Amino acid sequence: MTEIPEHLRKRAEAAKAKAQGEAAPSAGDAAPAAAASGDDKIPSHLLDRGTAAADQPAPSAGSAGGGLAAPAGSSGPDGHNQRLLTVVKSGSIQDTKATPQDKVHVWPHLLLAEFLAALAVTLFTLLFSIFVNAPLLELADFNKTPNPSKAPWYFLGLQELLTMFHPMVAGVTIPGIGLIVLVMAPYMDKNPSKRPEDRKFAISLMTVHLMFWSVLVMIGSFFRGPGFNFIFPWNSGLFFEL
Amino acid sequence: MADDKKPAGQALQEQLGQLTEQVQGSQAWSSIFRPGSIFRKGYNDSPRNRSYVIMNSVLYHLHPVKVKRHAVKVSYTLCLGGLSFFLFILLTVTGIFLMFFYRPTAAQAWDDIQTLQTAVGFGLLVRNMHRWAAHLMVLSVFLHMARVFYHGAYKPPREFNWVIGVMLLQFTLLLSFTGYLLPWDQLALWAVTVGTNMMGFTPVFGEQVRFVLLGGVEIGTDTLLRWYTLHVLMLPFVVVIFMAIHFWRVRKDGGISGPL
Ligand code: HEM
User: Fold this and answer.
1) Phi first, then psi: what are they for B68, rounded to 5°?
2) Higher confidence at residue B216 or residue A216?
3) Which of A228, B17, B35, B216 is deepest in the core (most CB within 10 A)?
């Protein structure tokens, strides 16, 4: 059920009352009768007056009622006295959607899911933190360079590139291009379809992009030992801190 | 029956009920909770009350009252955007706790962390949570980006929100990276040395970029102060603004993208 907002309902009621109130003085004593006759589309006394107005001079109708009675000049053929004020196109006030959307309330349907997800992550973080401590190595010492020295894990892809290319290429050109392509993706991908089968190229490209960085990060994290040389963690052990 | 002494539990319950009524009838109560609030008139499950839950809460008001049915499917968003946001909140809370016990100078930082872990109640636990949640957030933002891409959710009208998102990804990385230095241990110092050396390769003003980042030609106590301020104040401030735009755009673009 749709609810009509309180203030709109009041306004509509006030307007209705006003319209009835305005009809009353022009009809004089006949008002209760008109209300009583109820179902008739146009109360008979108004109909009479309408046809009369077509014949009579204007002042008699206008001054007596002072209400809705139309000026004589405006009545149309056959004594009809409605005037067209404006045409309200459908859709301009009420937005009639061509396809009604299937919607659900955020509470409880979405909030509950969010709450549970938040709870799960909190629990996971809490439990993990009880059993695994964050690293705290010795005090920083400029004279003791650890071997290997590694960047935080999310930059290990970059560090890995540094072993292969000139710093300018590894540190600026490749990540720069990667980032620009990422930002520009919505403006370069002109394919309007969102269906996977229509976007094989975009999906392949992104997958290669993501895999590229993931694999580099993995190698940098687990397969690099002293001197940032290639190692196998199962032979030489892990050189990785979070 | 009326003369019988009521069981203690029942009497207590009645008193509690009376108290509740008094409190909820008081002027203080009604001036705090808006007319229509479920705290005033109780909650029973009706469409109207379901709407009020959202409309009468500044927090839930981030959401519309209703969303498309498919939008609440966990299998669509995998909750990843929401979880990134939640991890950010968790990090803020635990981070504020850490701030009470930490001074960002080369002489004090490491000792403060050491003391926090050994002498402060829950210090170790909260530090652990802060660290693991940070790594988790980098991961979840990354995965969120991937899911958005594979759904083609960056396509019109959501192009700009994708751009905001890429900004958020970079700020998330920066937040994590600036935090990395703060414990001032060997791991922090050398990870940041490696990281900032890479930034020195920025073309044309590489040296200047590095200088501004470090607050000097090499890492020292000035760097620590600078990164601390970035980490606890400036970056969170910027991230919150970008998140506000991000969430606002999700709604302005017509809620999250449709079923595939
Ligand atoms: C701090 C990081 C971020 C937070 C807290 C965040 C939060 C959110 C949330 C809560 C949503 C609603 C839908 C959902 O949960 O999936 C969303 C949607 C979206 N996000 Fe993010 N986001 C972040 C980073 C990003 C990144 C890195 C990108 C892309 C590069 C991105 C692009 C988008 C887009 C395009 C949407 C609309 C998705 C749709 O309509 O299906 N966001 N984000």
Assistant:
1) -60, 145
2) A216
3) A228
C-beta of B246 in contact with ligand 1 (< 6 A): yes
Other beta carbons within 10 angstroms of residue A121's beta carbon come to 20
Tokens in use for A99?
A: 């396809």
Same domain, A66 and A14: yes
Which residues of chain B does A151 touch, with a Cβ-Cβ cutoff of 8 Å? 191, 194-195, 198
DSSP A37-98: HTT-SS-HHHHHHHHHHHHS-HHHHHHHH-SSPPPGGG--GGG----------TTTSS---S
Residue B209 Cα, ligand 1 centroid: separation in angstroms?
A: 30
| Distance to chain A for B51, nearest Cα, Å | 7
Q: What's the length of chain A? A: 242
Q: A212 and A219 in contact (C-beta within 8 Å)?
A: no
- Asked, for residue B208, whether it belongs to a domain, the answer is yes
Q: Which residues contact A214 (CB under 8 A, 6 or more apart)?
A: none
What is the CATH classification number for the domain harbouring B133? 1.20.810.10
Sequence letter at residue A19: A
How far is Cα B191 from Cα B54, in angstroms, rounded to an integer? Answer: 45
So what's the pLDDT on residue B147? Answer: 95
Q: Which residues, in sequence order, are CB contacts of B136 under 8 Å at separation 6+?
A: A121, A125, B87
Give the Cα separation of B240 and B171 in Å (integer). 10
Q: Which domain holds residue B95?
A: 77-252
Mean pLDDT of B42-58: 86
Residue A1 covered by a domain: no
Instruction: Evaluate whether residue A123 is within a structural domain.
Output: yes
**pTM for the whole thing?**
0.78
Residues A120 and A144 in one domain: no
Contact B191, A152 (CB under 8 A): yes
Q: What is the mean pLDDT of the segment spanning B41-52?
A: 86
Domain residues for A130? 105-134
Based on the structure, what is the number of domains in chain B?
Answer: 1
SS3 annotation, B226-258: HHHHHHHHHHHHHHHHHHHHHHHHHHHCCCCCC
